[in-house]
Amino acid sequence: MTSVSLFTNEFYETSSSTTERFLDNISTVSNTDTFDSSTNATFSKSDDKSSSIENITNWIWIIGAPIVFILGIIGNSGIILVLHRMNRWKKLTYKLILILAISDSVVLCIGLGRQWLRFALDLDIRLFSDFGCKFLVFLIYFSMHFSSWTLVCATFERYLKTRHPFRTYCVNVSKILKITYVFIIVITLGLDCPLLLTNELKINTENSRTCNNTSIETSNYEEKYFVFIDFAWLCFIPFVLMTFMNFFVGRTIKRSFRRTVRYIPDPQNRERHLIGNKKLTRMIFWTSVYFLLTTLPISIHFCVDSFLKPGSTKETSDKIDLSEAILYLFQFTNYSANFYIYCKFKDAFREYLPCKRRSRFSLERPSLSVSRGSRVTTLTNADYSVGNGAVPEFQENVIRTINETQLS
């Protein structure tokens, strides 16, 4: 079975080459003058067990990869289509969501698609050319890092608008976020560009191709240092930042709704606001948790793999490959699930799905406008009784800000 470590990019031989090398070992043993029958029996049992593990790993990729890939491409295409129908391209939040959907699709194509081609068709796209070897290794890392930090920037933009809503009107937050985003991209390029120099296409004496490290020094760098850099930049730092920001976003929204509920005498409207708040908080929470669940296990696995796999037996190596296949495939679901999380927790997102009929959509929007209008009228009447003419305008702005926050 082909064993590929993302963090070392070290290609072991294909299944046929592994079998040939394995048969060579058997022939070497058979040519000796003495051969212990008990050793032969043990060796055959180990061979059968190793072969069964290889078959399980192959079928995990052959069956699981297309399912995750199709769901992810459909989901990310759905996000792009919904954003197009919402026509909110001027908002930075939706631009980041669009970029996230595109980067997730790239990860699925060059990462998950490549794995399926390798195990199902015995075809590795990295072996077509030296440029393809270098560029595809770089691109899979950069796409994953880029996707993670795009999600961080989207969360940060939401954090600023929710935590400090009035400052965002006085300060050009979009410009600050764009500068921060470009700065993060530069750092990511600085971390990943060395991969263009540390990998190359090698043609062995048997005319077999491998995409491997250029030297022992570069191999040691990727196995002992880059794995931890990748773990921190891909998983740990983004998760810590998003957890911190989402905690304060959820607490701020909850306090905001508690203040707003006193101005909503209608129990039905009050309940609708509370339900929307609960769904919004759950969406923020589960997005971060699912990000951690999918990226943390495989990152830890590759860190352990870089120290455990070299010099291990074939059976141990096959078990590591099996665990890698399961965790790696699970990580790819992170790039497929955003659309379904949006649909689960965001009513406004579901309204713009293509499966929604125009007639139904047209009937729902006026009722929402009437509800909002009645809410504003109630607030205005209550506030005019107080005698402060400036309060109604302020409350309308507060309500509009809350509604935009729910849609973002």
TrEMBL record:
Provide GO CC annotations from the record. Answer: plasma membrane
Q: Name one GO molecular function term.
A: G protein-coupled receptor activity
Cellular compartments annotated:
Membrane
Q: Where is the signal peptide?
A: none
Instruction: Work out whether the entry's keyword set contains Chaperone.
Output: no
Q: Which CDD domains match?
A: 7tmA_FMRFamide_R-like
Highest taxon in the source lineage: Eukaryota
Assign the protein's first listed, main location to one coarse class.
Answer: membrane
Q: Which UniProt keywords apply?
A: G-protein coupled receptor, Membrane, Receptor, Transducer, Transmembrane, Transmembrane helix
G-protein coupled receptors family 1 profile domain residues: 75-342
Q: What is this protein called?
A: G-protein coupled receptors family 1 profile domain-containing protein
- Origin organism of this chain? Mytilus galloprovincialis (Mediterranean mussel)
Taxonomy of origin reads:
Eukaryota, Metazoa, Spiralia, Lophotrochozoa, Mollusca
